[in-house]
Amino acid sequence: MLKLADHWVWDSWYATDDDGRHHVFFLRASRALQEEGRRHHRASIGHAVSADLLDWTLLPDALVFADAPAWDDQATWTGSIVREDSGRWRMFYTGVSRAEGGNVQRIGSAVSDDLLVWHREPGPQVEADPRHYERFSPASDWFDEACRDPWVFRAEDGWHMLFTARAEGPEPTRERGVVGHARSADLETWEVLAPLSRPDALGFGQIEVTQLHRVDGQWLLLFCCGKAEAGDARRELGETGDNYVVPVDDPTGGLDGVAFDIAKARPFAHESLYAARLHDVDGQTVIIGFRNIEDGEFVGELTDPIPVRWDGERLVRA
User: Which distant-in-sequence residues (6+ apart) come within 8 Å of 201 by Cβ?
Assistant: First the structure.
């Protein structure tokens, strides 16, 4: 596991270098804040490396908040990493600003030749487009403008980005979480498109930290949502957890534009895991996330990898 004595650790994402070493990038904030609820607006992006996802060597932080004024001058949040054709690495990440009290989220990127030293690119590159997504208002019935947690992957027609977003609409507020979508030819200029899911009575107020991953031949959408932010019908169904999985046929949406049927989401059973990620090690898929609330207290450390498999209906422990 990855546990820091002086910092809380939470959302994480992974990359494997040419030597087979696993790099984890994670949100961290000082335990000196004492109240864990304050950590979000103090977050930076930490970095560690491991040969086996068990024993980690801590490295210098990858990214911290920018000098003001900037779109990311308050905190840097969750992202993902891809490798460009040139061999350079690109990290997409979320930023919030002091000018907006951290209420508006945007997405930008940084680049690196070695996964160690990162340089910000001009940004932001993706923002919530009001044609498709809910924007923040002090009078809103939701607490932020969701445009965060970018997950970037390549398809036949270019690069695609999934992100946490919310739709405008008449649906109850805890049913309006959607999977945001953007597309790019070069990883620099992005077109924000309609979401790849729709609000649903069996849905969620937010669909956080999305990831696409193939397990046992099946494409899966993995995401998380706290029980308090699940819709009423979802809670009445009794199908609540923290991490959820949806089977996927076409990750880019196909002809109808809806790639993810959120009503089909089923929880991955675990006592405390949140913001989990799937990663492959020696042919075995594992899941890793952070330990969340245990005995009423926030833990804030990464778990050891848990082997998993797809049983045809659910993601389960292998």
Answer: 171, 175, 231, 233, 234, 263
CA 265 to chain CA centroid, nearest Å: 16
Residue 25: per-residue pLDDT: 98
Residue 1 lies in a domain: no
Give the span between the Cα atoms of 103 and 146, in whole angstroms. Answer: 9
Asked if residue 255 has pLDDT above 80, the reply is no
Phi and psi at 200, nearest 5°, equal: -145, 145
Distance CA 29, CA 234 (A): 32
* Domain range for 83: 7-317
Tell me, yes or no, whether 130 lies in a domain: yes
Domain assignment of residue 256, yes or no: yes
Whether 204 is covered by a domain: the verdict is yes
Q: What is the CATH number of the domain that holds 61?
A: 2.115.10.20
Digit-coded pLDDT (tens) for 95-107: 999 999 999 999 9
Give percent helix, percent strand, percent coil of the chain, each to the nearest 5: 10, 45, 45
Q: Are 48 and 58 in contact (CB under 8 A)?
A: yes
User: Given this model, what pLDDT does residue 313 score?
Assistant: 94
Q: Which residue type occupies 61?
A: D
**In contact, 267 and 301? CB cutoff 8 Å:** no
| Strands of 89-96's sheet in order across | 75-83, 89-96, 106-112, 119-120
Number of compact structural domains in the chain: 1
What pLDDT was estimated at residue 215? Answer: 98
CA distance 275 to 225: 8
pLDDT > 90? residue 274 = yes
Starting at the edge strand that comes first in sequence, how are the strands of the sheet with 266-267 ordered?
208-215, 218-224, 243-248, 266-267
CA-based radius of gyration for the chain? 18
